[in-house]
Amino acid sequence: MRKNFFMKIALPLLAVLVLVAGGCNSALDDPDSNVILQVAVTDSPAIIGQFDEATGGCTYTITPWSADFSNLPKNASAITSPANDIVVRSWVVSYSWPDVPGVTVPPDRLLPSPGTIPANGEQTIEFEPIYFQDITGAMANTSAILTMTVDAVTESGEVIELVILEQLNIGCV
């Protein structure tokens, strides 16, 4: 009973913390790293469905989200391109609905990549947090945890891996 109570409190708090903080790679303390990749989901509207009395289901509208990918220098020499440019090789999202029975979890999806982020630069990208065909009736009025995994590398060969948690709200009115 205590574990279940803890999970109900811990998951939303973790999601809120990550929503506020965004994410950055672990190179903050690495003396050999010149740059830091920071990703912040800056616009994440809920998916709202309109109830259709004729079909008994919802018609959903998916508004794109946006994310800023920032290449932050750790020192004065890290602002030079191309050695300190970051190439995003992939950006994958996986979904979970904790404690929501009956939800068929969609497969992992490859999100659009911002490509190369120049030294001391930023790329903003829009993306759909979930595909329309992945939304089911069991998801109405629920929240999902999106685990976004970014795989990147600097032009000089430093591997960067980053995991970001976001909350996706799906409503039907």
Mind explaining what this structure looks like?
With 173 residues, this protein is mainly beta. The protein has one domain (2-172): Immunoglobulin-like (Sandwich). The chain is built from one helix and eleven strands; from the N terminus they run αβββββββββββ. The strands form two sheets. Strands 3, 4, 6, 7, 8, 10 and 11 form a seven-stranded mixed sheet that branches. A four-stranded antiparallel sheet has the order 1-2-5-9. A hairpin with a 4-residue loop joins strand 10 (142-154) and strand 11 (159-172). It is elongated. The protein starts with a helix and ends with a strand.
Short description:
With 173 residues, the protein is mainly beta.
Topology:
Elements: H1 2-21, E1 23-24, E2 35-43, E3 47-52, E4 57-61, E5 65-73, E6 86-96, E7 109-110, E8 116-117, E9 122-127, E10 142-154, E11 159-172
Parallel strand pairs: 3-11
Antiparallel strand pairs: 1-2, 2-5, 3-4, 5-9, 6-7, 6-8, 6-10, 10-11
Overview features:
173 residues; mainly beta; Immunoglobulin-like; four-stranded antiparallel sheet; 11 strands
Strand percent estimate: over 45%
Instruction: Give me the secondary-structure category.
Output: mainly beta
What's the CATH architecture name?
A: Sandwich
The low-confidence parts are 1-21
- The level of helicity is 10-25%
Biggest beta sheet attributes: 7 strands, mixed
Overall 3D shape: elongated
Enter the CATH topology name: Immunoglobulin-like
Number of domains: 1
Q: What is the CA-atom radius of gyration, in angstroms? A: 18 Å
CATH class identity: Mainly Beta
Number of strands: 11
Instruction: Compute the average pLDDT.
Output: 86
Number of helices: 1
